Amino acid sequence: MVRLTLGLLALAAIVCDSTVSAILPNPNRRIRRQASNCSTPVDPAIKAPKPNPWLPFSRNETATLLEWLHAPAQGLNLTVYANFTPWDNRVGVTELLIPNKTDVLNYLEGGPAPVRYARVELYFGATENPYTEDYIVGPIPVSEATTINPLNFIYNKGNGKSPVYAADYQLLIQWAESIGTQISDIMLDILGTDLNTSRIIASDPKQEDGRTILWAQYGLYPTSEYDSGSILPQGLFLKTDITGRKPEEWKLLNIFYDNILYDGVDEFRKAWETPGFNKLTKQVDGNWTHTGRSSTGESIPLDERAPPISIQPEGQRFSVDKDENYVKWMDFEFYTGFSRDLGVTLYNIKYKGKRIIYELGLQEAIAHYAGNDPMQSRTAYLDSYYGFGPYVFELLPGYDCPTYSTFLKTSYSEAGYSFTNKDSICLFEQDAGYPLQRHTSRDFITVTKNTVFTLRFVSTVGNYDYNFDYNFYLDGSIEVKVRASGYIQAAFYANNEDYGYKIHDAISGSMHDHVLNFKADIDVLGVKNTFEKVAIVSDTVDYVWSPIPRNTMRLERSFVENEDDGKINWPTNSAAMYVVVNTDEPNIYGEYPGYRILPGSGSPIHLTIQNSSNLLNSAEFGTHHLYVTKQKDTEPRSAAAANSMDLGDPLVNFGNFFDSESLVQEDIVVWFNLGMHHVPHTGDLPNTVFTTGQSSVFLSPHNYLLGDPSRFTSQQVEVRFTPGVDNSAVVKDAPSTPKCLVVDMSPMFPDFSTYQGGEQTRKFPYTDEVDPNASDP
Ligand SMILES: *[C@@H]1O[C@H](CO)[C@@H](O)[C@H](O)[C@H]1NC(C)=O
Ligand SMILES: *[C@@H]1O[C@H](CO)[C@@H](O)[C@H](O)[C@H]1NC(C)=O
Ligand SMILES: *[C@@H]1O[C@H](CO)[C@@H](O)[C@H](O)[C@H]1NC(C)=O
Ligand SMILES: *[C@@H]1O[C@H](CO)[C@@H](O)[C@H](O)[C@H]1NC(C)=O
Ligand SMILES: *[C@@H]1O[C@H](CO)[C@@H](O)[C@H](O)[C@H]1NC(C)=O
Ligand SMILES: *[C@@H]1O[C@H](CO)[C@@H](O)[C@H](O)[C@H]1NC(C)=O
Ligand SMILES: *[C@@H]1O[C@H](CO)[C@@H](O)[C@H](O)[C@H]1NC(C)=O
Ligand SMILES: *[C@@H]1O[C@H](CO)[C@@H](O)[C@H](O)[C@H]1NC(C)=O
Ligand SMILES: [Cu+2]
C-alpha cells in the first residue's frame, strides 16, 4: 500500500489542465483515487446485435446435460467421475457443438436461432478395447425433445470412435517403474540416480504391426520448485509392448543406452559388467533450469529504473457485451466462442458493418521432433488432444497485458467438472510503437498514430506457453500472431549432434517444427468468393515503342479454380499475392475487392518431414503453407482432438477435403499455418523467449475500399511550416488535448495477491459450493 501511494505521487507530474485523476483499472481489487472534477470514464456499454450462437454452455446448460446423461433412462451406464476407474464408462468433454454455418447465416439474416446441440465425448472403459466416441445431444437445454445420437457428420472417417491405448496409464507407469527396480544398481552407476530421484517419462503409445508399443525414458525429478522436468532427460530408454489390459502380459522388449539396443535386462547387465562399458555424462539439475531472477549478482545497467508503460488517458475506446462475448472496436466487431480443444475462436468479424470473416481460429498445433534417440524421434504432439482450452490460465496484468485491459473469464467442462479461469482473455488497445502513416513535404508534415486493438490469450500446454494475439489495425488489417515461450523439450545429448546443438552438459536442444493450423473463413461482400493469385514474374516484353525487347517484370493474374490446386506455398522471393476476391462485385475501377493473406512477422512454415512416420494421415494440414477448400458444414475443422489416438485412421483426415470441387465464386475457406523451425540454442535456457519465437499472418483489405480508411481517424496531426523560419509552424489538424487525463497508476505495482491461475468445480453430482442456478460469472 505504501509503495502504491509513492507510485501515485511520483507519477503526479503527468498533469493536464492542473487536474489529475488517477484510477486503477479493477476497482474490486485495487484502490481508486480521484481528484478535482475529473470523473472516471465509464466503459462504453454495448449490447450484441443478436444473442451469440457460439456462446459456450452456461452452468445450468452443463449441469442439466450431465444430469440427463447420467440418468438410467439413457442407458449409458456412466460412472460418476469421482468414483471412476479405467474399467468404467464415463463422460469426457461436454460442450457446445459449433452450429452449422448454413443455420447461423440464416439466423444472422433474420431467421430463427440455431438449435443448440452438445458434443459429448464418452469414454467406454468397461471393455478389453477401450475407446472414446462422440455423440450429438440436443436440443439443449435438455427437454422432452432431447435425444442422443452418434456424432458422425463432422468426421470424414465416417464415425466418431477412437481407440484409447493408454487407458491404464497409472498402472502402466507403476509397471514401467518396476523394471527400474531390477536395474537400480546400474541406474545409480550410469545415471547417478534411482527411482527416488528419477522418473519414467512415457511417450504416447503407438501401434506397430498390431502391437501397442510404448517407449519410455528416464528423467530427473526437478530438484527445485521450477517446472524444469522437460529439460532433464537421462540417457536410458525402455521399449515395451503394452498390448492389452493385463499388466502380467506386458513385456519389456529392449533397453537402449548410448545408441546400443539391448535385448532386455540380462543382456544390458552383462554389457554393463564388461570392462570398458562406455558411461555417458550424467544429467544434473541446477540453477540453469530456474526461471526466476538469476542469483549470481550480475546486473544490467540502469535496469532498476522503471521501464516505460502505456496509459489509456481518456478511458476505454472499445465496448464489450460480456454476456454475449461480443466486442466492438472502431469499425470492427465480432463474437467469440471458446472450446476445450482450441481455446478462443472469433466469429462473424465485421468491418464497417459488413462481414469479412465468418470464422477465424486455431485448428491444431503440431510440435514434431526428431533425433537419434527413440523418444525424440517418436515425438510429434498434436496439442488439441491435450486441449488448449483447459490451459488458458489467468493473465498477469502489467506483464501479460496492459493493466487497463478488459479481462474476460474462460470456462469449459470435462469429465463432470467445470473449469473457470478468470481474467484469462485480455482485450486492449496499445500504441504500435511506430506511426501508421507519415509524410514530410517541403512545407507540411502529416503523421498518423497507429493504435492497435488486441485480443490475447495464452495456453500453457505442458512445458510450452503459446501466446495467441488477434490484432486489429486502423487500415482494416487483422494480424493473427502466435508466440512461443516456456520450457523446451530437450533431448539427452548423446548421439544427437545432427538433431540439435549441445546446450548444456548433458542435453541437446532437440530440433522440432511448430506448425499451427488456422481456419480463416473469409467472406468478401457475401459468401461467394474466388481465390486469386497475382504473380510477379520476370519477363522479356516487346513494346511498340521500343526497338528491342525489354527485360522487365509484370503481373500474371490467375484464379485457383479447383480444390486440386488448393494446396499452396508462399512463393519464393514473395513473388505472388494471394487474395480472396469477389468477382461478382467489381469496384468502380473494374478491380475485384478482396482480402489479401500474407506472411507477417517470423517466417511461417510447413512441416519439414514428409509423410511423417509418427503422424501418418493426421498431418495433411501441415504439408503446405496454406490451403483453399470449399466450405462445408461437414468439414468445420481440419483436425480432431482424438486424431492423436489413431494417427493412421484419424477422425478427420484433412487430405480428404480435397475432392476436385470448384472454387470459383463459391463459399471458400483458407487454412493457413503459422510456426517455426525451432532449433534451440543456449539462449533457450531456461526458457524460449518470444523475440524470435513468433510467427504471424495478415489478412488485409486489398482493393476492398476506395482509399485508406485510416484517413478518417482523428488521431493524426498536420503541421504547416515555412522551411528555415522559426515560429512559423501552424498545426492544421490535431486531436484536442484531453480535458481530464485519467492515468492508470497501477502498472508499476499491480496487486497479484488474488492470482489463482484457474479453478474447477464439480458439476455432477453438484458439490455444495456450486449453485447451478447461479448466473455465470
Ligand atoms: C472543473 O470545474 C470548474 C468549476 O466548475 C471549472 O471551472 C473547470 O473548468 C472544471 N475543470 C475541468 C478540467 O473540467
Ligand atoms: C456397466 O459398467 C460397469 C463398469 O462401470 C460394468 O462392469 C458393467 O458390465 C456395465 N453394465 C452393462 C450392462 O454394460
Ligand atoms: C530409494 O532409496 C533407498 C535408500 O537409498 C533405496 O533403498 C531404495 O531402493 C530406493 N528406491 C528405489 C525405487 O530405487
Ligand atoms: C543457486 O541459487 C540459489 C538461490 O536461488 C543460491 O543460493 C545458490 O548459491 C545458487 N547456486 C549456484 C551454484 O549458483
Ligand atoms: C508414407 O509412409 C508409409 C509408411 O512408411 C508408406 O506406407 C506410404 O506409402 C508413404 N506414403 C507416401 C505418399 O509416401
Ligand atoms: C449440419 O449440416 C450437416 C450437413 O448438411 C448435417 O448432416 C447436420 O445434421 C447438420 N447439423 C445440425 C445440427 O443441423
Ligand atoms: C436450470 O434452469 C432452469 C430454468 O431457469 C431451472 O428450472 C432448473 O432448475 C435449472 N437446472 C438446474 C440443474 O439447476
Ligand atoms: C434452482 O432453481 C429451481 C427453480 O427455482 C429450484 O427448484 C432449485 O431448488 C434451485 N436449485 C438450487 C441448487 O438452488
Ligand atoms: Cu519450440
From TrEMBL:
Signal sequence bounds: 1-22
Coiled coil regions, renumbered to chain: none
Domain DUF1965: 230-294
Organism whose genome encodes this protein: Morchella conica CCBAS932
GO molecular-function terms, A-Z: copper ion binding; primary methylamine oxidase activity; quinone binding
Keyword Signal belongs to the record: yes
Domain called Copper amine oxidase N2-terminal: residue spans: 78-143
Family membership noted in the UniProt record: Belongs to the copper/topaquinone oxidase family.
InterPro entries, per the entry: Cu_amine_oxidase, Cu_amine_oxidase_C, Cu_amine_oxidase_C_sf, Cu_amine_oxidase_N-reg, Cu_amine_oxidase_N2, DUF1965
Protein name: Amine oxidase
Required cofactor(s): Cu cation
Region (Disordered): 758-777
Co-factor binding details: Contains 1 topaquinone per subunit.
EC number: 1.4.3.-
